[in-house]
Design goal:
Cobalt-precorrin-4 Transmethylase, domain 1, 9 helices, five-stranded parallel β-sheet, 2 domains, single chain, Methyltransferase, Cobalt-precorrin-4 Transmethylase, Domain 2, 10 strands
Length: 233
């Protein structure tokens, strides 16, 4: 196969794409006519945002989400056999992290297809480097359990690891972020440090690291915000 898979970065919610995505990456994205995406509507919107004349109607889109069967994914690589490149796009940030696109990348490596990562915003790494917590030893857990009892158990395990010097990082959906934060300050030790990194790269960006005891005096409003949480010591 002569085609390549480009890992396309997407903004984290802002329409100021030129501030977070390099021009060279935007040029590559604009040149592609085949994409594997989580949701066609948001992918088309992003492409039209970076180029108002982007020919979305003449572009092929393959949907790769939690409902996509494993047997379908290899078929998405058909354009590569014809010498065409493919762009893999997440809903936000970099593809392949807490994202079903990782399945496509795995199959690409198995088939000896070249995978090309492109530079762009990652809420996980941006949150980590701005938290003041250890960037030498850290663990990313994706999304933690929804059920309160299971959530409390994993938070306590994360706290223990954080106490051993391993920064714990996880994400949460905008409609659960507030409830998760409230659980954190109710079950974690007063001296445990929590970094709340909300709306990274957006005009409403807010990143703050404090101990649980301090957060209890200053509860933020995280409703409908994109949040990355970090635990450390």
């Amino acid at each position: 196969m002569n085609g390549k898979i480009f890992l396309i970065p997407v903004t984290l919610g802002s329409d100021q794409f030129s501030q977070v995505i390099p021009d060279s990456v935007l040029d590559i994205t604009r040149s592609l006519r085949c994409f594997v995406v989580e949701e066609i509507r948001t992918a088309r919107r992003f492409l039209r945002m970076i180029d108002k004349n982007f020919p979305v109607d003449d572009t092929a889109f393959y949907i790769l989400n939690e409902h996509t069967r494993e047997s379908e994914i290899s078929g998405f690589l058909q354009p590569l056999k014809e010498g065409n490149d493919i762009g893999l796009m997440s809903e936000a940030g970099l593809p392949g992290i807490a994202d079903p696109g990782a399945k496509l990348v795995r199959i690409a490596h198995e088939m000896n297809i070249r995978v090309v990562p492109l530079s762009g915003p990652s809420s996980i790494l941006l949150g980590l480097i701005s938290s003041g917590l250890s960037g030498q030893n850290f663990r990313f857990l994706g999304y933690i359990p929804v059920k309160p009892a299971e959530r409390g158990i994993i938070l306590k395990d994360m706290e223990k690891r954080a106490g051993d010097g391993e920064t714990q990082i996880f994400m949460e959906t905008p409609y659960r972020a507030q409830k998760v934060f409230e659980t954190m300050i109710s079950v974690l030790h007063p001296d445990t440090k929590i970094c709340v990194a909300a709306d990274i790269t957006l005009p409403t960006e807010e990143i703050r690291t404090m101990r649980v005891s301090e957060w209890k005096k200053r509860i933020p409003d995280l409703s409908h915000r994109l949040v990355v949480f970090l635990l450390g010591k």
